[in-house]
Amino acid sequence: QVRLVESGGGLAQPGGSLRLSCAASGRVFSSNVMGWYRQAPGKQRELVASITTSGTTNYVDSVKGRFTISRDNAKNTVYLQMNSLKPEDTAVYSCNYRDVYGIVYWGQGTQVTVSS
Q1: How far is Cα 84 from Cα 89, in angstroms, rounded to an integer?
Q2: Under 8 Å between Cβ of 32 and 98
């Protein structure tokens, strides 16, 4: 079992920044993929960014150049630095962990609202 605890999120103005953190605990495998998904009202959940333990990253086109995902393997923690935020970034952001066996765990989700 893996537990994911998220922090960060909240309200930001357009053009502002927020940082999300997600700490994994429990049976965390040394090789895994962690990432952030988001779901806006009335829309499907989408992958925002992911990162492997070796540092390979993947971003959805809409956040490239604005968001940066990183991780601290010693702390089993993944971060999402969100800059130049736009109102369309408003969504519930959820942390995701996937191990080498394909087992997936989710965080509880954190609200990000971008509004003036």
Answers
A1: 10
A2: yes
